[in-house]
Structures are given as structure tokens and as C-alpha cells.
Design brief:
flat, mainly alpha, 5 helices, 59% helix, 93 residues
């Protein structure tokens, strides 16, 4: 992580931001906001309900050390399969 900003630097950055012209919503954003205003709140669900209903895509992004990635790729090549197939095999064991 970088160094902490001084109060002077923070104030300068806020001044720069506040000096910028206000952004105007696009026609698409305006239409989306109008549609949201028309929606019936009784049809809304909570975040917990949404999470319980969601379906899983089958995709999983996992960050691993480069050496482990290299070893998995080499093992997959030696076994004549893709790294995805090899990792799936290993996870399913």
C-alpha cells in the first residue's frame, strides 16, 4: 500500500473534484431510473432472498501462485488434457 495522503493533498484533490462540471445522466440512465420508480415495491425481494434463489454459473476464479499454476499446466499437458479438465479432476477426487 502507498503512503498516506496529507490533509493538504486530500483537500487539494477534493477541490479538483468539486471544480469538475456535474455529470448529466444519459437517456438510458434516465429511462432506467423512471422504470425503477414505476416498479411495485411489493414485488421486491430482500438481498438474502435473492442470494438464496441465485443459481451458480459453474465458473470459479481462483488466484494461485505462479509456480502452482505452472505445475498444474505441466501436469495437464503430461496427461493430455486441458488445465481446466485437470483441475476439475483434482478437485473432484
Amino acid at each position: 500500500m502507498g503512503r498516506a495522503l496529507t490533509m493538504e493533498e486530500i483537500e487539494k484533490r477534493f477541490a479538483e473534484i468539486n471544480a469538475m462540471p456535474a455529470e448529466q445522466p444519459t437517456p438510458e440512465e434516465i429511462a432506467a431510473m423512471e422504470q425503477a420508480d414505476r416498479e411495485d415495491p411489493s414485488e421486491s425481494i430482500s438481498l438474502e432472498e435473492y442470494k438464496a434463489k441465485r443459481e451458480y454459473s459453474g465458473k470459479l476464479l481462483v488466484r494461485i501462485p505462479k509456480e502452482l499454476h505452472r505445475a498444474l499446466a505441466q501436469a495437464a499437458k503430461e496427461n493430455g488434457v486441458s488445465i481446466n479438465q485437470y483441475v476439475l479432476y483434482k478437485l473432484a477426487k
